Amino acid sequence: MLIGEYEGKITEKNRLAVPARVRSEFKSGLIVSRGYEGCLLLLDGTRWKQLIEVVTAKPLLQMSIRDTMRFLVGGAHQVELDAQGRFVIPSSLKDYAELDQDVVFVSVLDWVEIWDRQRWLTKLSDLAGSASDIAERLMQDYEK
């Protein structure tokens, strides 16, 4: 199970080491893609396939499906880890997520988000300030 937060640093050659705890949970080739709210998504091949199956379960005629595929799949890259567990972040994804040197890996069960550290601290602050409201909305949805 993918849980926890881990800090990392991007090298001068745009390499980023995947934390050992995260690597141990991934089984096959890695995919990195655009994520929501300005982060990157990191998944293994099995989890990527499951995500794509969910998205493609709806008809291609729906604009939201096409746009989701463009966003996720169009921005996806297969990456290989070197002997130190590092991969090169494609420049288009580094620019999209506005990654500087310091990053945070946020593991959320089925995928890992890669955030610029400052952006993550801002997002986390927003989440902390609205956690009770979010829980309340989830309960309302659950009761329906």
TrEMBL record:
UniProt-recorded Gene Ontology molecular function terms: DNA-binding transcription factor activity; transcription cis-regulatory region binding
Keyword Aminoacyl-tRNA synthetase belongs to the record: no
Gene Ontology biological process terms from the UniProt entry: negative regulation of DNA-templated transcription initiation
Subcellular compartments: Cytoplasm, Nucleoid
Official protein name in the record: Transcriptional regulator MraZ
UniProt domain SpoVT-AbrB: residue ranges: 5-47, 76-119
Alphabetical list of Pfam families matching this protein: MraZ
